[in-house]
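User: Can you fold this complex?
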Amino acid sequence: MDKNEEKQREEEREQVVSPWEVSSSGKIDYDKLIDKFGCQRLDQSLVDRVQRLTGRPPHVFLRRGVFFAHRDLNDILDAYEKGEKFYLYTGRGPSSEALHLGHLVPFMFTKYLQDAFKVPLVIQLTDDEKCMWKNLSVEESQRLARENAKDIIACGFDVTKTFIFSDFDYVGGAFYKNMVKVAKCVTYNKVVGIFGFTGEDHIGKVSFPPVQAVPSFPSSFPHLFSGKDHLRCLIPCAIDQDPYFRMTRDVAPRIGYHKPALIESSFFPALQGETGKMSASDPNSAIYVTDSAKAIKNKINKYAFSGGQESVELHRKLGANLEVDIPVKYLSFFLEDDAELEHIKKEYGAGGMLTGEVKQRLAQVLTELVERHQVARAAVTDEMVDAFMAVRPLPNMFD
Amino acid sequence: MDKNEEKQREEEREQVVSPWEVSSSGKIDYDKLIDKFGCQRLDQSLVDRVQRLTGRPPHVFLRRGVFFAHRDLNDILDAYEKGEKFYLYTGRGPSSEALHLGHLVPFMFTKYLQDAFKVPLVIQLTDDEKCMWKNLSVEESQRLARENAKDIIACGFDVTKTFIFSDFDYVGGAFYKNMVKVAKCVTYNKVVGIFGFTGEDHIGKVSFPPVQAVPSFPSSFPHLFSGKDHLRCLIPCAIDQDPYFRMTRDVAPRIGYHKPALIESSFFPALQGETGKMSASDPNSAIYVTDSAKAIKNKINKYAFSGGQESVELHRKLGANLEVDIPVKYLSFFLEDDAELEHIKKEYGAGGMLTGEVKQRLAQVLTELVERHQVARAAVTDEMVDAFMAVRPLPNMFD
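Assistant: Here's the predicted assembly.
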C-alpha cells in the first residue's frame, strides 16, 4: 500500500454515511459522497426546470442546495412534462417521541413537492425496523409510529392525496408479495456489501431491506394504484438512505417495475457543528419541535457553534467564518427571505453583525417555526391519524 | 485426522437430512439422526399413554413406528391429562400439483390426532417459500397452494376445527409481529449453522425461517387464540423439518411462549428403495394420488424394489429380505390389519409367498386408498377451500 492509497483509506475511514451511522472527522464531503454512491448532482438547470414545470418558485431547500443530489430526476420530469404523473414515497423510522428540526426537513420538502406537482404520497413508518434495531418492544414501536404520524400530519399534508402506514399494520398481501420478489433478487453477500451486516447481526436486519424497498413499487398499494404498475415513484430522502434505494433500483427492472427516482438532501447539522447528523442521545445537540421558546433561545446561545471571532474587536476586523457557523447554516434552512439571508451573510461575514445578533434572529425564526408546528400538532386528533392511515382509495389524488 | 475421524466424516457425508435435501448412500440411520438433532425416541410407553389418554387405538403410523421421534410430547400429554388442551400445527410447501403418498403421511396422521385429541389445527401452505426456493412465480405458487389445499381437505379434516392458510395471503398483523420478534433473536451465523445457507443464497432464504416458526405461537392467530398466549402447540411433521423447530424452540421462551412440542416421522421411501425421500423430478419413484389403478399396478410391478430372491426356487428356500423390501414397507404404512401384515411378513420372509403376490396385495391396498382420496378430492369445491381458508373464529374447536 503506497502513501496515496493509505491517505485515501484514511479519508474513507473518516467519513461514514450509512442508514445507521453518519460520522465524519470534519465536514461531510458531499462531493465525495456523490462519487461514492454514484448519484448525480442536482444542478441549477434542474432547479430551473422544476420551477418551470410547477409554475412556482422552488422550495428554499431546493434553491439553496439542501436537496443537492438525485437519481433519474430528469426522467421523472420528462414523463411529467408529457402528462405522466408519478407518486412520492418517503418515510421515517419512529425511534423517538419528539422530532427535531432535522426530522422535519424531508417532510417539509415532500409537502412542497406534493403541492407543486399535485401527486399522491405514501409515507412509511418503519416501526418494524426500529423494533429490531433499537430493541424497542413491538408495542412501543407502534406507539411511537402513531406519535410521529401526528408530527408528520402537522406538516400540512393533504389527506386526500396521502397514505401513511406503519409496517406492523400494513405488511402483508401485495406488499409482502413484493417483499418476497425483491428478496429473491438480492444475495446475502450483496446486502453485506451495501449495508455492512456481520454474521453476528440478527436475521431481522437481513430481512429488512426489502421492506423499505417495496413502497417504491406501485403494486404494493393496490388500494391506490391498482392497474398502474408502471406509475413512476420519486423518493425525497436524506442521502444516508441511498443504499436502500441503490439496492431497490438494481432489482426493479428484474421484477418488472421502473427504478424509483430519488431527490436527496444533505444532513441537518448538530448545534455543535457540521460533522454529521444530530445525535438522538444528546438533547442539547438539536432543537426539538417540542422545545419552548426559552429552550430554543438557550440552546442556540449556549451550544450553536459560532464562526465569529474570539473578541468583538477581532470580529469587527476579520468577520465571521460562515463556512463553520451554525446559526447562519440554520438560517439558510429556515429563513425564507433570500434578501435578508444574503444581508446577514454579508454583514456577519464582514464583521458588521455580531454572533449574538445572528443568534437572536435565528431564535426568532426557529421559535416561530416550532410554535407553528406545535399549534398544528395539537390540532391533530386521533381521528385524523386514523384517516391518514386508513387503507382506502384516494380518488382525487392526481387532481 | 485419524482413521476413525475419517470414517465418521465419511458417514456424515453419506447421510444428509435438511428441509431441502434428504439423501443417503444406504438406508437412513434414524438412530443417528435422533442423536444428531437431539430429539427423543418415541417409545412404546408413550404410544400406550396416547392410547390411554385418547381412549382409542393408536394410529398405524404410531404403533408401527412411522412417527418415531418427538420433543416434549410428554409435556403436552401431562398438560392434556390435567385438562389443558393444545393445538396442532402442520404444513406443506406447495411445489407441485399432484401429491404422492409420502405427502399424505403427515396429513393422515394429523387428522387422527385432531380426531383423537379433539383439538384445533392450523395448516400452513408455504407458497412464499416455494416461490423463493423453486423459482416459481407468486401466482403459480398461490395456485399450487390452493390445489394442494384441496388434497389436504380431502384427508377429512374438520372445518369447525381447522384453519388452512397460505403465507402470501396471511402474513401480516400479529403474524408479522411474531416474525419480527423471532428474527430479532436469531443471528445470521445461527441460521447458517442450522440451515447451511451461503453468502450467495438470496436473503429471501435467510428471511424465511421465522415464517415457518411463528405458527408455533398461538398469538399468530388472534382470530383463533386471542387471550390464549400460553396454549401449547404440537407439530406433527417429517423429521427433515426439525431444524426449523430447533430454532423455534430456542427462541420461544425468550419471547414469552411455550416451546412447541414435536412428533416426527421417518420418510416414506421411494419405490426404488429406502435411501431418502422420493424425488419429485422422477414420477416413477412414487405413487401419486392422481395415479390410476393401472398406473399403480404398473409402477409397483416395474419399480418397487423387491427383497425376494432371484429365482422361485431360491426364494422358496431363503425367503424374502424384508429389510429392503419396498412392497412390505409400503404395506406397513397402509395395510391397517395388523394380523394380515404379520401373516404376509411371516410367509414372505419364509419364502411361502412370492413377491408377485405381495405386490398384488399392495396394489389393491394403494388403489383403494388412492381411489378413496380421488373421490374425496373431487368433492372438494372452491367454496370449501374458501371456508377452510377464511380468517374466522372457530368457536367449537375444543369440543
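Residues 355-378 of chain B form the longest helix (24 residues). Chain B is about 50% helix and 10% strand.
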